[in-house]
Amino acid sequence: MKANPMPDDAVRGIGQRLRKAREDAGMSLADAGAKLKMQMHVVDALEREDWGTLGAPVFIRGQLRSYAKLLDLPADAIVETAAMPSARPAELVPQTYTPRMQRVAEQTKLRLVYVVLTAAIAVPVWLATRSQSTPTDNVPVALDVAPGEELPADAGVAPPAQTAPEPRPLVASMTPMPQRPAAVAAPDISVAFAGESWVKLSGPDGAVLEQALIQSGQQRNFASGQIGKAVLGNAAAVSVRVRGQPVDLTPFVRANVVRFTVSSDGSLQPVQR
Prior knowledge:
By secondary structure, this protein is an alpha+beta fold. Helix content is about 30%, strand content about 15%. Among the domains are: about 15-80, 434 Repressor (Amino-terminal Domain), CATH 1.10.260.40; about 190-270, Immunoglobulin-like (Sandwich). The longest helix is centred in the middle third of the chain and has 33 residues, at about 100-130.
């Protein structure tokens, strides 16, 4: 299947060299696509050097290298010669935002709750202590008894009664009780990147959510029903978790690219070709 090198290989375009080598090998576009497990329009775009329809450069280089190896062409030279535009990471827009007025309203609501609870506790306590406090009655004392002398039992004068100390009212604190932080649930679908990877993420309706070159160390989190299809380049550097559990990506990898769809219950399914 080895293509005969032409004298003008050095000046011929990459796409033309690929087409000439395929025709010399007696293969059609459909044959090449079947052997590479690529769609026929992708193989045709490589031969026409239509890089704009194929995505990011890192994705195109992988396809060129696979095609060149199939045709017995120098893969590294083909990839290095290809003149492709540099990829620019897409600007990400945060999906959740809490308006300032909403935060102020929530804080005010909490303060009102504390005030009402404090009044409900303090007012009944104050009323109960006030009703129980009575003035001390006057106790008659015999004038003919020296200080320190005990009164006789028949003196007819009752000893002074011991008055109980007046209870002190209880005051509820206005300081709000500290709240424990709520437990953060694991995202439904989490994609982590240990290396540079080109991605294309689409929603259930087919709309593109993100198509960019993701740098190493980044992560994307999605809620259930937010993502419908994913194409992830550089499969060795990609890991996926569903509700915190790691997923074996082997059934979804072809030509170093991870492709899967997300069902309504959040499970991953291979892309049907």
